[in-house]
Amino acid sequence: MFAIMAARFSDATATFAIMAAEGEISGDGELGEPSAMEAAEVPTPPPPEMSNEDRSAAVVAEPSGDPDCVAVSLPAAAEDEDGAMPADFERLWEAAHDSPHDFASWTDLLQYCEQEGHHVASRRALVAFLARYPLCYGYWKKFADLERRAGNNDKAAEVCVQGLHSIPLSVDLWIHYINLLLGTLDMNLIESPKRIRSVFEDAVVAAGLDFHSDRLWDLYVEWEKEQGNVGNATAVLDRVLKVPTQLYNTHYEKFKAHLSSHEPKEVLSLEEYEEVRAFCRESQKVERAEQAKEKEEERPPGEEEPATPEGTDSEELMQRIREQVLLRRDKVYQENEDEVRKRWNFEDAIKRPYFHVRLLDHAQLRGWHSYLDWELAQLNTDTQANKDANESDTDVKDATEDTAQPRQETQETAGARDDHRVRVLFERCLIACALYEEFWTRYIQYLEPLSVDEARAVYKRACEIHLPSRPNIHMQRATFEEKHGDLAEARRVLEALEKNTPGLAVVRLRRAALERRAGQLERSEALLQEAVAQSKEKPTLHAFYSIKLARLLLKLGRNPSRARSVLQEALEISPDNDKLHLNLFELELEGEPLSSAKAVQECVTRALAAPLASHTKLRFSQRGLQFAEEYSDSIKSVMSVYEEHQKLLKELGGTKREAENGDEDPEKKSKDDDGSAADASAQAPDATTHTPITTPPPQAMSTDTSGQAGYGAYSNWYQQQQYCSYGYQNAWNYNQGYYPPS
Fold it and tell me: Is there a contact between 427 and 421 (Cβ–Cβ < 8 Å)?
């Protein structure tokens, strides 16, 4: 909503000259020396006892358009026009481009070009820098001054326009651009004042609601006075009286001085002047009539009061008009003071309102969140109040359509005003917090229900300018585009993200999932196959992609043969990956029990021969024995599996193993706690009783995190079902007396 209208600036390339620079600029783009207006005494916060009455009226017309960040596309001069580049330019240039996120390398390059005084080198460096850091308003001003000193006044104006497209809330940049016009335009031409006024209007629409926009409003008022348009100056003062700014009280004082130094007819609009004049004349007549009635008894018979000449206004009437005008403005001032008082603590907590790559402290971030929470709460409160008022109007039986319509329009205007304030605060926040994706996300969540196109424009600014290497917000953008039906753009966003930040498995999975949801199963499969082929040199990642591909082939492709082949090939590369063994085992379990019995036992045999941990092998063996017991059609096969399991128990040291993560076995600990350990020991069978050796209840396949590092945030995706939840409290005790002793 803060974009500068292209039509307003189509003639920005006209021949202009610029006034003297307004002050030195520090390396982070902040003004080093404040102007005289900035140095004015800052008022104290309004008193807390001020009444909280009706909100002030709308302050400025809502601008059209969105804040699309326009790339820097200024025409660069030929590099050979001023000869060769400075000696160290290429070295610093390469250093900045090799580390594009290193702000110091860019400032070193810019400082060197400025010291050398080389115009072409400085221009080249500034264009590249501002394409990456467009919120540094100080460097836009430096760029404009660079072109001015070289005599390129049209390019200086174009620089200002480009800068204002990128950072329309910059009061300093607006003043810099206006000074450019004021210092060069021929004011004798009828077009010049119109152009200046048009730029002023764009400025106050874009940045006039900023809490620190007082200098811009003051400049607008003073310019109108210099042009002799005291009525226009009054209109501007009336507008700023409704805007909660830091120097809100000085505007009211200036209005009083303005009104007292001019005739009311010159200052006020014709409509307001006639209305106030009629009101004052009527009140004056009433007072005079009362006074005449009192004096009539004292006047000699036949003498009449002298008549006032028709068409003339006495000085007394003029004073009455001024008092009535101030009385009306005082109500507006009180309402605005209440708005300032509400915002003062939030504004006072903002210590760095400008952009910098240095991180903000937690207090600053909390302050912005709190401010946004409050402003959004105000919007919701006002919206609900307007809704209740509309419902109240419809309940009044004698209300006509003609009387209800004006109030409805007023409420809609108030809603637009409050929405404008919320957007201005978000835009201010995103200048100081441009590197924090949480604020971009919050702004988008606010805009999306109102305008998908505006939300899309904010995503574009965030992803393409300020957060090019933050994967989360890019994936959010892809989800946004898919949700709103633009699959091509969603694909493009994810492809660009994967290209810019290679190695993120989650991005490839998002791409495959996007194609799957779009009904393009072959594309989804191809993406995973490509990932499997490209990751063979990274066994952990290769296993991860192989599992994902196998699941896709099994669950959606209904092709267990191909899924089995994928897992088997992966096991050849990573035979020690228990997750591959587990997924292949689960694949075989999903088949028909009778036909898959051999394949299940082959999985168990393969796992036992692999370099896996002892407890993992035991669990595979236990699971194989359970499968044989439940589904085998031959007691001989069950006995064979059982015998192999017993051999494995002996080879691996019995039925117990050390507790994972250093924790004591829960069952043993409970026995120790209740004193039943001795009893359990006394009841334990020995080898002479011919009681079959049993195993503990089957547990889940290994869920330790030692091998999850390469699986990113998706480690939980392939945690398998807990086999101990099959319903067996002591899974193997029911075999007592069923199998012969080993």
Answer: no
Give pTM, 2 decimals.
0.74
CA distance 666 to 659: 9
Q: Whose structure tokens read 């060769």?
A: 84
In 19-102, which ranges are continuous DSSP H helix? 89-98
Contacts of 52 (CB under 8 A, 6+ apart): 338
* Spatial separation of the C-alpha atoms in residues 158 and 577, rounded to whole Å: 61
Residues 527 and 543 sit within 8 Å (Cβ to Cβ): no
Taking each helix axis from N to C end, the angle separating 505-517 and 539-551, rounded to the nearest 10 degrees, works out to 10
Which residue from 666, 735, 729 is spatially nearest to 694, judged by alpha carbons? 735
Q: Output the pLDDT for position 707.
A: 38
Q: Which residues pair with 25 in a beta bridge?
A: 31
Contacts of 474 (CB under 8 A, 6+ apart): 463, 467, 493, 494, 496, 497
CA–CA separation, 55 and 25 (whole Å): 38
Per-residue pLDDT at 28 exceeds 70: no
Instruction: In whole angstroms, give the CA distance from residue 238 to residue 59.
Output: 9
Domain spans of the chain, in order of start: 349-394+407-425, 575-657+689-742
CA–CA distances in Å: residue 83 to residues 80, 89, 123: 5, 13, 14
CA distance 710 to 505: 9
DSSP 513-562: HHHHHTT-HHHHHHHHHHHHHHTTTSHHHHHHHHHHHHHIIIIIS--HHH
Does the pLDDT of residue 7 top 90, yes or no?
no
Q: What is the residue-wise DSSP string for 157-198?
A: HHHHHHHHHH-TT-HHHHHHHHHHHHHHS-TTSTHHHHHHHH
Q: What is the mean pLDDT of residues 680-701?
A: 38
